[in-house]
Amino acid sequence: MVVRTALAAALLTAAALKLASPGASRAALATFGVPRGLRGATWAAVVGLEAVLGATVALGSDLAAYAAAGFVALLTAGLVAALAAGRAGAPCACFGPRSRVGWGGVGRNLLLGGVLVATPSLPDGRPSTEGWLALGLAATVVCVLLLGVAVLALAREVGLLRLRLGTQPALEIVAEGPEIGERLALIDRFRAGRETRFMLAIFSSDSCRLCRTLEPAVAAFRRDSLLAVEIFDEVRDADVWRELEIPGSPFALALGLDGAVRAKGTFNSYGQLESILATAERRLVEARA
Length: 289
Fold this sequence. Notes:
By secondary structure, the protein is of the alpha+beta class. It is 56% helix and 9% strand. It is elongated, with a radius of gyration of 31 Å.
């Protein structure tokens, strides 16, 4: 019974994953040479067979176990044919859109088919109370592991989505702060090294909660040998704030080695501060051109 339940779960999971991403699953049939016009019907037939065979195997049908083994053998033959045609790594959608043609899939199918063939010959017994408790505990552990994998996969997808969406650049308003291209005496407050390309002036305030949150980001920029970074506090450096008409904190100026303002803006993240330097780099290249 335990083996039948596990086999049924594998077949039903394969069907569910194909239903979850029908477009990708139908497109994957091109790997096996299925014409475009037949992919919809073929996909429906595969999903239906997996669902029916999974349910009947779970109910204890020996005929269903043998039929499922034959079905898995047919799928294995398709994988081997695709490998022979040089399509290794192509999508197969065996277990969702991420499945790929490979010898690992062939081995998995051979193991699944072998167990299906052997299932009718296994002894049939009813678990004791302790046995049911052990099965329940094992199922709970498996569910926790699957949930952990799902959470990790979701975190990865969220990270990829954020990378694809990109970071909103820092807010640069012409009327705020010094003008772009203006040369500032502020450059005398920096200690530039031989590799320094830009001076980065950070305008911060002790009363600014966001400024304190961004301190690790600023510290990371300070470790960059291409930058000379100085922080100007709203109270301790009030004269600099007034002279440059700094609108608030956190605010940053990117200066060239000649003291000219290359970029400026209000920022609230590491990415936005980096965008100020990227803008400065681009404008410096344009000025040289």
